[in-house]
């Protein structure tokens, strides 16, 4: 390869990819890392951060003579200190050859950290060549220079990868991979997402089906929801996925059959117990590193802004419950960030009058003291440093303390001008997180729902304390709780794994198999009658809509999934409000006198934007999801259409198959009645104004939706929690 230019080298690497999953994961990591320079800089500074934490903490722990500092402090506050006795230099308190004087335990911790750092340096060096190769792939094969990686949308990257696969159909995998049955000529957005998230999709399904027992097996510590921390999550990923998947990231074939069920269960149990022992041995080292890193990381932030102590974020358990199948991390992160303002306002506005009364009192006292001290500092600045209120602490120290107390206490006092509307705010959270447990419905104002949501959206300081405690309790969870889940985990992988040509074995929820997992309560046509096979809370249906919204040019291969999408569009097309909106747009166009404003307000298939079409899907899905009410279940089943032989889609229509007109009319009437009960929402995701043209599909069993009337599903994400 020495004589090859960068483009030829990139083509050679593409032609010799023997693990497409790993390669696409690197492609995605390069994308979210924002290019070669950002990734290299981030990794280099991360190495420097680790080196600083190890070096500085070692210096503080073993190279400073703290007894001399204490003696100096006592002497400084004595009655008659001399000038020479008051002065103290840093060199006076340093320990000569401090490393050689370390105790055995301190030296062991130090050498462990040094070995860890050495391994990180080796990984950094080995990763540079792969980073350069990925830069060549983006620059020369995808025609995406490094400067554009930070701004180009991911679906455009996938589109270019698909085009590259079409132009080089026989060079993307080695012959051994083709013999394994994972070679396919097409590589669309769904295939890419399934390969990148092959393992994560199983974790999403495990949390959705509540298969994992993560309770702490100690009296009084059985938390609900379970306290899933990053430490426990890492152990779960290593123990579970490392056992169920091979080195190539593929599901091991022995898990697909029931032949070795007993041996597999016992093997998984032993793996959990082994990791419990490993965590128990390394717990002291992990605690020390977490404490030191967190101190250096967050002290400056909290010192600069004490009110940030009250900031919140979603727990790890909440994130796995919220995340959808085939939802890439950057899309999920954006969805969570959009919900934060609603979540914070929802928790803040709940009545907490007793806390507010105490906070007002503390704020008044702290503010009074701070005002006097600040006034004294204005009169004579020397008082700030040289006036000691106590023998050890001067005015500056107490100003800092009272400032922190005042900031925290004021943060606990609610805004008096704030209106109390928990239903509206939590609905905003539901529309963005797509999470609505059954016991929340109709009870958004209750303290039980408030406490339940608060356990998912916790204070950052509380999450940090949980991380520290997790180092202690994780061995108990791995030793006692998770082994009980081993039979259910093995059965789950056998029952919810399917083989797809061109992909291999994947989670059946991730392929949007409506014939097997469809749930009529969430608008699926027909659906599998075994409730045990359906995802909870309509997770699969939500995932399809979310994935379709993020990839508007993608069409599902499953005819039932295509019918589900077309029924949502058809429900909107037949709604009275849609006709009224079209009439209003027409009036706006005519009143505009042919100007630009009128043209912009009209809605036609040719010039509609994603934002306009999102609003239509918001309303359509609201009517579709309303049929989950018990009283509407019969009508929903009556309106479901059986999939017949393959037919070609009718040009310029919205339906993929012929639906029964009476059933559709009954569905529309029930939807309108429910709409009057639930009311309307003004939320619409208008952030994406890019006009998108959807390709017409002539195969009715695959997509069956004409391009002329197809609309984007992105806006459905706002209402997918349901208002039934």
Automatic annotation (TrEMBL):
InterPro entries: Autophagy-rel_prot_9 (IPR007241). Pfam families: ATG9. The chain crosses the membrane at residues 44-67, 102-122, 272-296, 357-381, 393-413. Residues 574-605 are annotated as: Disordered. Its main location: membrane. Keywords: Autophagy, Cytoplasmic vesicle, Golgi apparatus, Lipid transport, Membrane, Transmembrane, Transmembrane helix, Transport. It catalyses: a 1,2-diacyl-sn-glycero-3-phosphocholine(in) = a 1,2-diacyl-sn-glycero-3-phosphocholine(out); a 1,2-diacyl-sn-glycero-3-phospho-(1D-myo-inositol-3-phosphate)(in) = a 1,2-diacyl-sn-glycero-3-phospho-(1D-myo-inositol-3-phosphate)(out); a 1,2-diacyl-sn-glycero-3-phospho-L-serine(in) = a 1,2-diacyl-sn-glycero-3-phospho-L-serine(out); a 1,2-diacyl-sn-glycero-3-phosphoethanolamine(in) = a 1,2-diacyl-sn-glycero-3-phosphoethanolamine(out). One of its GO terms (cellular component) is Golgi membrane. It is found in: Cytoplasmic vesicle membrane; Endoplasmic reticulum membrane; Golgi apparatus membrane; Preautophagosomal structure membrane. Residues 590-599 have a biased composition (Gly residues). It is a multi-pass membrane protein. One of its GO terms (biological process) is reticulophagy. The keyword Acetylation does not apply. Phospholipid scramblase involved in autophagy. Cycles between the preautophagosomal structure/phagophore assembly site (PAS) and the cytoplasmic vesicle pool and supplies membrane for the growing autophagosome. Lipid scramblase activity plays a key role in preautophagosomal structure/phagophore assembly by distributing the phospholipids that arrive through ATG2 from the cytoplasmic to the luminal leaflet of the bilayer, thereby driving autophagosomal membrane expansion. Belongs to the ATG9 family. This is Autophagy-related protein 9. It comes from Acaromyces ingoldii. The lineage of its organism: Eukaryota, Fungi, Dikarya, Basidiomycota, Ustilaginomycotina.
